[in-house]
Amino acid sequence: MTAPVFVVERMPAGPEFVLEGPEGRHAVSVKRLQPGEDVVLTDGLGHWAEGVVRAAEGKDRLTVTGLDSIHEEPAPAPRITVVQALPKGDRGEVAVETMTETGVDAIVPWQAARCITQWKGERGAKALSKWRSTAREAGKQSRRVRFPEVAEAMTTKQVAALLAAADFAGVLHEDRDHDSTPLATAELPVTGSIVLVVGPEGGVSPQELTAFAEAGARPYRLGRSVLRTSTAGTAATALLLGRTGRWG
């Protein structure tokens, strides 16, 4: 297995580092790491360093040595962003978790017209914090060193502006009466950015489709079956990673 990943606020400045707090507790009390085991420290922004456990003390103190050099993972190309309409219940965290494990680069929560869930005030701030925490934990679990960005929730107008600036913009739309192209056959860029919109349980409204079309986003479909909003983004990300060569 690859070495477990732990997040630090700043990369170590020297060859030895003491991991404390929640990350240290997870390493010592949950993972039960022992001297001699390999670990990876990262800031989640692409910087990382390999080290070896020198000592595990108490319940939350792990001393790591051998951190002789800091590496930087290049930003992937093309960059894949999924605009995720807000699902009901905890399906939002499920979508964030699986998209992160798959390899998405950015996630944008979208308050679509037909969303049952509403992010307002303190409830919205709490939900966004959960999404970001989920992305961080899923990034660690999947051994990533560059975690996906989770943006502030956007309105349809803001999403349209994001789509207009992308090198490839699309909307997953499973309407039998609507002219949509298979995402599997779409012409994709080799660099730049890809932005894909995943609608809510009730679907993307005609007004939203019009706004996105004016921004240059065409409708696309994944296959014959209709996926739930919490799984469509993951399936689309996997397809795009394979087609762009990032899963090569």
Give the topology.
Blueprint: E1 5-7, E2 17-19, H1 21-30, E3 38-42, E4 47-57, E5 61-65, E6 71-72, E7 79-85, H2 91-102, E8 106-110, H3 121-141, E9 149-150, H4 156-164, E10 168-172, E11 181-182, E12 193-198, H5 206-214, E13 218-221, H6 229-243
Parallel strand pairs: 1-3, 7-8, 7-12, 8-9, 10-12, 10-13, 11-13
Antiparallel strand pairs: 2-5, 3-4, 4-5, 4-6
Helix pairs in contact: 2-3, 2-6, 4-5
Enzyme class: transferase
Subcellular location: Cytoplasm
Pfam family, one: PUA_4
Structure report:
Residues 19-64 form the Ribosomal RNA small subunit methyltransferase E PUA-like domain. Its EC number is 2.1.1.193. Pfam families: Methyltrans_RNA, PUA_4. Belongs to the RNA methyltransferase RsmE family. The protein is α/β, with parallel strands linked by helices. Helices cover 31% and strands 24% of the residues. The protein has 6 helices and 13 strands. α2 runs parallel beside α3. The mean pLDDT is 94.
